[in-house]
Amino acid sequence: MTQAIRPTFINCARCGTEKKVGRGGPIPAYCSAACRNALSNERARKDGRYEQRLVKMRARAAAQREAEARPCPYCGSPMTNPRRVQCGAPECKRQFRNARQAEFQRKHKAEHGVYYSRQYDGDRVKAYRITCIQCGTEAVVTKPTSRYCSHSCWYKASHARHAQVELAWKPLLRAPRLATVILLRPLRRRWFSACCPMCSTWFITDNPRDRNCSRRCSRRAAKDRRRAMERDAFVQHVSRPDVYERDQWTCQLCGEAVLRDEVVPHPQAPTLDHIIALSRGGTHEPANVQLAHFYCNLIKNDGEWADVGRRPAA
Q1: In this structure, are residues 95 and 78 in contact, taking their beta carbons and an 8 Å threshold?
Q2: What does the alpha-carbon distance between residue 111 and residue 198 come to, in Å, rounded to a whole number?
Q3: How confident is the model over 38-45, as a mean pLDDT?
Q4: Contact (CB, 8 A) for 245 and 291
Q5: Is it the case that residue 216 has pLDDT exceeding 90?
Q6: CB-count exposure of residue 280 (10 Å: 0-12, 13-18, 19+)
Q7: To the nearest whole percent, how much of the chain has pLDDT over 70?
């Protein structure tokens, strides 16, 4: 009987790649397991077995998700995703964020003795008794202008106002397309004009307590007031333009003119210098401030002025 000759190389039945045959075992028909699985998947797709198997797996996964569904802790809706902590509704998201923030605040207070949002607040004394316009509860608050006893009451009142506005305007917004509807929303804000004491710029605002035209001017004014108050200095309003005009736009330390259009950190930009430094008991008032170059002000710091030579150019 003639013995079959074992080939040394074979050609893959799918891609035609030449593959070396080992000495033992059955003779392979494919070059790799990837080609064997790919050909099997192609045949399954042609026969329709792939789609049937996919439908069964999807149905099994859906049944498993429904069996493992958990109710939403806020509204009770079923949650099929095991990683979800709420169902995804806007109200549930808001309640979850509020609960997480409240838990964070409680942990911070237990560790540091003060809430995270109140760590920079000064001493507040509840000395004003009011009646909450939302729940009617009598409470003691820190501000005489407060109208609500807590943040939750303020939120409920705000939500109710928005709901009333939405109910009033929804019928008009759902009018037929052929009809022309002109919506004139009444003006609810009052506008005020004021002059910024930092840069002498006139601006318009809806808050009568705004004193500055921009965030930059507010930061500059707050920085001046804070530095003065930190050192227990006497705080009085200081207008930079008035001081600059009083000193005729001339540096009172070196005697040279300043560049009006430049800003810090330009070395020749105009700045306010305290004649007697706040750290040495000086006061924050027009009589104790003068115009100086930014560079000269840095050189003086909180000590005595010593001319070190020519100011650097731009």
Answers
A1: no
A2: 41
A3: 89
A4: no
A5: no
A6: exposed
A7: 86
Cα–Cα nearest to 292, from 259, 312, 138, 113 = 259
Hey, what are 199's tokens?
A: 């840069």
CA atoms of 225 and 236, how far apart (whole Å): 9
Angle of the 49-67 helix axis to the 33-47 helix axis, nearest 10:
90
Instruction: Give the largest CA-CA distance in the chain.
Output: 124
Query: b or e along 217-241 (b: 16 or more beta carbons within 10 Å of the residue's beta carbon)?
Result: beebbeebeeebeeeebeeeebbbe
Length of the chain measured in residues? 314
What number is the average pLDDT over the span 293-310?
78
Please say whether the beta carbons of 202 and 194 come within 8 A.
Answer: yes
Query: How far apart are alpha carbons 135 and 103 in whole angstroms?
Result: 25
DSSP secondary structure string, 17-57?
-EEE--SSSPPPSSSSHHHHHHHHHHHHHHHTHHHHHHHHH
What are the backbone dihedrals phi and psi of residue 229, each rounded to the nearest 5 degrees, phi first?
-70, -30
Mean pLDDT of 142-160: 86
How does pLDDT run across 113-144, given as a tens digit for each residue? Answer: 888 888 877 777 788 899 999 898 999 988 88
Single-letter residue type at 228: A
pLDDT at residue 72 in the model: 93
